[in-house]
Write a structure and sequence with these properties.
Bound molecules: zinc ion
Distance between the termini: 22 Å
Radius of gyration: 24 Å
Largest sheet: 8 strands, mixed
Oligomer: single chain
Strand content: 25-35%
Order of helices and strands: HHHEEEHEHEEEEEHEEEHEEHEHEH
Structural class: alpha/beta
């Protein structure tokens, strides 16, 4: 990563000075991963640093969340940055000295890096109080991995007092090399809904199916028909996924069971497609149950909403990062059908979610999220700090020098 002098002072040098400190923090968090809503030690570490940097700190958001506020001497806009703190219930297979010390828990999604990068940004801005204008709010939330900590923080008013004008979030990205940034123009991640279907028939002897109502055969038809929704009901130019991830029923080769249970996930990138998928699953399940003369129960749950970047804020991120790393190193990404609870912040406030490449083939850092071999190239830590500093500088018009 060859870099040039920018912003009138050696920004990269100032950030590189904290490189070892960033690595130390990331490793401390990585060694002690905590699951959603249990991030007690992580939150303590965060608040201790924020207090040391002289920020106003409020704890106890969404149980374990922490919010820090730095008020500029001059009035201006309020920008918020968000990091998630939770780890995953997974045994780490890496043998690095900083690998997880806790059995069955691992930072396999890089949230340790997100926390560290935001602490680096806090250290940076608290060291230049005279150049601050407006406010910066740091949001450390629990439970991104399915717990919806972000939704709770937003409901608890984290975007108020002072009211946030723009919010930015990032996720490390093992599909791009370190030194590159990925940005979504609008839709970035999918709505992640889920369903459970119970097909309730009437069991009996496998040799006398005519006196039973077989839920297994009904399940077979239902699986096939549900898979026709995306190909026959959704506009080919829209995106949708339905995956049935679990089917269970039956106990033996010669018994027709009473019921079958199916679990699935439904992904979409627009509210219209989201509703259409739900409606079709309801109709098809009802129709299959009727045609096989069985009962059913359908439990359909909305998950995270679609993550939609504000196009103007996306352009701002691309411009700000591009000024530092060259616009050829900023990639516009296609949306992913994964989910992210940063979507809740973007529902209420303009902002953007971007990706920080953390792949390093030479070091073997190539594994995807949620793999027991996941790791990050730690050069992403100072790099991430720099990208946030540039974004804030651009948004606030600080003209750091
Ligand atoms: Zn994850
Ligand atoms: Zn994640």
């Amino acid at each position: 990563m060859e870099r040039e002098k920018v912003m009138g002072f050696f920004l990269q040098e100032k950030i590189q000075e904290m490189k070892d400190w960033l690595v130390e923090i990331r490793r401390a968090i990585h060694m002690h991963p905590e699951l959603g809503f249990e991030e007690i030690e992580t939150a303590k570490l965060i608040s201790a640093w924020l207090e040391r940097f002289g920020l106003q700190v409020k704890k106890g958001w969404a149980k374990t969340g922490v919010v820090g506020l730095l008020e500029g001497k001059k009035p201006g806009k309020t920008v918020a940055l968000r990091a998630d703190m939770d780890a995953l219930p997974l045994e780490e297979a890496n043998s690095a000295p900083y690998a997880s010390k806790l059995p069955g828990k691992m930072h396999a999604c890089g949230h340790d890096a997100h926390v560290t990068i935001l602490l680096g940004v806090a250290r940076f801005f608290s060291s230049i109080p005279d150049q601050m204008q407006g406010n910066i709010k740091w949001i450390f939330q629990p439970a991104e991995e399915g717990g919806g900590g972000g939704r709770i923080m937003v409901e608890e008013g984290v975007l108020e007092n002072p009211k946030v004008d723009a919010v930015f979030g990032t996720h490390v990205f093992p599909f791009l090399p370190t030194g590159k940034v990925g940005i979504y123009e609008r839709e970035g991640l999918a709505a992640t809904d889920r369903f459970t279907i119970h097909l309730i028939g009437q069991g009996g002897h496998a040799a006398s199916p005519h006196v039973t109502r077989d839920p297994i055969l009904a399940a077979g038809h239902l699986i096939t028909q549900i898979h026709a929704i995306v190909s026959r009901n959704i506009n080919p130019l829209d995106s949708a996924v339905i995956t049935i991830g679990k089917v269970s029923g039956g106990t033996a080769f010669n018994i027709i069971p009473d019921k079958v249970e199916m679990l699935g996930t439904v992904r979409s990138l627009t509210p219209q497609v989201r509703e259409e998928l739900k409606l079709r699953i309801e109709k098809i399940t009802e129709g299959i149950a009727r045609s096989f003369g069985i009962d059913y129960r359908l439990d359909y749950r909305y998950g995270y909403p679609v993550l939609v970047n504000d196009p103007e804020m996306s352009r701002l991120v691309a411009l700000a990062c591009g000024q530092g790393i060259g616009k050829e190193n900023v990639e516009v990404l296609k949306p992913s059908m994964g989910g992210e609870d940063f979507a809740y912040y973007l529902e209420k406030c303009p902002g953007a979610f971007f990706r920080l490449g953390c792949r390093n083939e030479e070091k073997g850092i190539i594994h995807p999220y949620h793999s027991s071999l996941f790791d990050i190239d730690e050069r992403v830590l100072p790099f991430g700090v720099e990208m946030f500093v540039r974004i804030i500088d651009q948004y606030m018009g600080l003209n750091l020098h």
